[in-house]
Amino acid sequence: MDRPLGRRALIGQTLLGAGLLAGAGACTATPAAPATPAATPAAGGGTDPAFDPADWASVRAQFAMDPAYAQFAAFVLAPAPAPVRAAIRTHRDALDADPEYTPQGGQSPDQTVREAAARYLGAEAGGIALTDSTTMGLGLLYSGIRLLPGQDVLTTEHDFLATHEGLRLLAGRTGAKVRKVRLYDDPATASADRMVSAVKAGLGPRTRVVAVTWVHSSTGVRVPVRAIADLLAEANKGRDERDRALLCVDGVHGFGALADGVADLGCDFLASGTHKWLFGPRGTGIVWGRAWDAVAPVIASFSEASFAAWQEGREPAASTAELVTPGGFKAFEHRWAMAQAFGFMTAIGKDRVQRRTQELATRLKAGLAGIPHVTLATPRAPELSAGLVCCSIEGVQPFEAVQRLHAGKVVASTTPYNPSLLRFGTSIVTSPEQVDQAVKVVEGLR
Q1: In which order are the strands placed within the sheet that holds 178-181?
Q2: What single DSSP character describes residue 36?
């Protein structure tokens, strides 16, 4: 070139020439699903059911699940409600008809999704990275976090493989020591005070990362994230900014089930898939953060800043959520439909969703606790649990229990831990009658 192009023109020319216009953010997704009842075209003709967010029967009707079964495993690979399915169909069919399809609008679809997620979390859109899952989000964090010599990492014995493996790999690359604390011995009697005290006891003067899980997938215990954040805020007083302990949270079993936003939690990073309790498109997720300068990107971003730096022969500036968001071709029909998932849950109301989830969980725990051959593992107190309810049945292995429950038209799951437990998840697709059905079938398992 005799003369350099302006930055925006350069980016637009490059993305268009590479066939990346849709994926790199030069178009906009359709807006979030309306809160008012509406019927949308369904696959194979007909329409999806009208949506009345104030009516729980109408909410459940938005899902295409088999009504013959009481569904307590919807959080595993969550079904999408009608507005999300309709958005996926729209984008998928348009892309199949025209590979250069771009939704109409004035901003990028990624930005539309970030803004929808930010409204839901009470955050700024610039703090949100887009991922494919909780595991990817945690991997981006623990692969990219910058550690100085002598800094260490603190986690718990109760976290999932994604956290433990991510930190093991971090230790292998950096030599940092990773320590694990035990938050409780018996999950049913877990207490917020003991959990906070355990973290406090494990904290060192050079602890840089504190990695915890909001709701344990192993037991259903809900960790007091806000109290841990307050503890770290006190511990960080007087520390150099580069030595400040960062609170990183695997939020997947709280995100969408509980109403807390990032200001309520007080953490530094929150990673979650949006295809579980939020009932968003499968293969989607987010990481929210407020300390992105502490994280180096580990996968090339397709952001404008990344392309501009590459084409101008320089490194990008300080890390941002957008720079940490992995580039590449995605299942764009799913990513672009994330906004409808946030809109769907917002229409119902985050507080109403939490109340419903916990009321059903409380009902289920009460029923299971009344069965002599059942041992409840999840705390009875709502403030120490969310929608997961875990238990064991005397003389019946968890996998066998799942099979026998299925024969009784109740769908449950097992925890992927050793030892394993029988696990239920109460959610917006569950009714009180189905909770009672599950209790009755469990009572007959001997």
Answers
A1: 128-131, 285-289, 269-273, 246-250, 207-213, 152-156, 178-181
A2: S
Strands 128-131 and 152-156: unpaired
Task: Copy the structure tokens of residue 376.
Answer: 């409840």
Tens of pLDDT, residue by residue over 121-155, are 999 999 999 999 999 999 999 999 999 999 999 99
Q: What is the pLDDT of residue 15?
A: 42
How far apart, in Å, are the Cα atoms of 73 and each of 1, 277, 385, 410?
Answer: 58, 10, 17, 9
Asked whether the CA dihedral 387, 390, 396, 398 is positive or negative, the reply is positive
Residues 6+ apart with CB under 8 A from 246: 145, 208, 209, 210, 268, 269, 291, 294
H-helix segments, 18-160: 21-24, 56-61, 82-97, 109-121, 134-144
Q: Which residues pair with 47 in a beta bridge?
A: 41
Cα angle for residues 137, 217, 246 (degrees, 5° grid): 45
pLDDT tens figures, 435-446: 999 999 999 998
Give ∠ CA 49-51-53 in degrees, rounded to 5. Answer: 150
* Exposed/middle/buried for residue 313 (C-beta within 10 Å: 0-12, 13-18, 19+): exposed
Dump strand ranges (E) for 349-403: 374-376, 388-393
Task: Return d(Cα 115, Cα 130) in angstroms, integer.
Answer: 11
Interacting residues of 67 by C-beta distance below 8 A, sequence separation 6+: none
Phi, psi of 67 (to 5 degrees): -70, -10
Radius of gyration over alpha carbons of the chain, in Å? 23
Q: What is the DSSP letter of 269?
A: E
| Predicted confidence band of residue 46 (pLDDT cuts 50, 70, 90) | low
Tokens encoding 184: 């409780």
**Are the C-beta atoms of 359 and 387 separated by less than 8 Å?**
no
In whole angstroms, give the CA distance from residue 283 to residue 90: 18
> Beta strand pairing status for 374-376 and 246-250?
unpaired
**pLDDT tens-digit profile of 76-90?**
989 999 999 999 999
Distance CA 144, CA 193 (A): 32
Cα distances (angstroms) measured from residue 38 to each of 46, 81, 187, 201, 374: 13, 13, 43, 53, 44
Amino acid identity, position 293: D
pLDDT digits (tens, 9 = 90+) for 208-232: 999 999 999 999 999 999 999 999 9
